[in-house]
Amino acid sequence: MPESPRREDPTAGGAPAPDRRARARALREAAAAAGAPDRWCEDLYREAASEPELIFWADQVPNPNLTARWENWSRDLPPHVDVLVTGAGYGDDAGWLADRGARVTAFDVSPSAVAAAAERFPDRSIRWLTGDLFAPGLRPTTGFQLVVEIYTIQVLHPDRRAAALAPLAALVAPGGELWIIARGRDEEDDPGELPWPLLRAELTPLTELGLVERSFEDYLDDETPALRRFVVRYRRPEAPT
Ligand SMILES: C[S@@+](CC[C@H](N)C(=O)[O-])C[C@H]1O[C@@H](n2cnc3c(N)ncnc32)[C@H](O)[C@@H]1O
Q1: Is 241 part of a structural domain of the chain?
Q2: Local structure of 128: helix, strand or coil
């Protein structure tokens, strides 16, 4: 992966770097018009080989909303927890989790992103896969003990999000957890453009898919300008014996 400058927040509004986002948005619109709505991801990562700043979310550090919670939240998980990272991008969260002793599988719809991630973390025993959140095809018999979803739902057009929730929930093992980190908004807020912040109601169906919400944090982070975050923790109850 080429060196890139420190990222702005992938979901931030405001002035920074409009051109970098514009390319992602143009590619997404073209891909959607061609009936291949996620193809823009690979298109963008490919272009980023010569123009790394196009990947406006790539800051080459693990997500601080994840790292801040790991110590507390991981206490409820088995040692060497079996983790799946969805939409893993350049792999920083996967690499960080592997360094904490987790057994990590990480996938992304973009083969170029997966190749770059594997190259960046060659000494970690991470299972890197190209896969589509809508049909990941990687659910082990029992599911994963932890699924970490950061900013992938957000790059799905709001019309497509509901369809992603069932395959996402199905990845969580009985007794396992799903952690979601996203930018949030209220119904009356401007939905904006890609990456569209989430409504809380867009996540509610997860509780109808067998997951129990353990916590829902809705806060302004410490970025400048401050951004509204949703950090949500779900658990799938143990299967009855
Ligand atoms: C905003 S980026 C976030 C990447 C990474 N999670 C991070 O926080 O740096 C969204 C990622 O989701 C991936 N993605 C988009 N649609 C996907 C899909 N249907 N299945 C799997 N990954 C997808 C993109 O290729 C991209 O790497």
Answers
A1: no
A2: strand
